[in-house]
């Protein structure tokens, strides 16, 4: 019976409606609010939410189905240079629109999700949404698990020649901009060389300007041909990215000393 229902759905409403099923205990509030916020402030193709229902302990987000398919590494390799350039130009426009949204005139926290709460970002913390942060200094302290740069390097055996690099990167201050925070191929929908949508907005929020580039490098680190093109649509921050790679990901940190 369940298979019959799935089949009927796929050839009827499923052609126009996509249902995102969240994990048990995960809340849809922030992601839904974020998609509405982006639709209000940009012309980026983002799914429109119809309704959120709770069934068997999980939230189900009913939204418009974005045409096309997820961008893949194989597809990116197969594109001509003209097609790549066309896609990159569209993405550059969308990222620029996000970064041009004026931050709300509120007092700290300044680094937060669209509703002012914690950000879902496993680069910051693998266990749960983390923050909000009153400023970039506090966010950097989280990256170092509460330690000074010198103490963090000592604990995690970071070679002395890299300590200055991390310290310099963490002393920099960047403007806070609206950030998708998960720019991966799987979240870019395409039809031919037309970008039909950006999806999965649960990690988005107000973050330092370098973070979009840092996260995008981490998310697709094995796709070298894609990594090389990131700087063509996301403003690059190479120093900050190198420092972040040395620090590693989440609170379960393992050193990367091969840079």
From TrEMBL:
Keywords, comma-separated and alphabetical: Kinase, Transferase
InterPro entries, per the entry: AGP_Transferase, Aminoglycoside_PTrfase, Kinase-like_dom_sf
Gene3D superfamilies, per the entry: 3.90.1200.10
Superkingdom classification of source: Eukaryota
Gene Ontology molecular functions: kinase activity
Transferase is among the record's keywords: yes
Aminoglycoside phosphotransferase domain ranges (all copies): 35-221
Entry keyword annotation includes Kinase: yes
This protein's name: Kinase-like protein
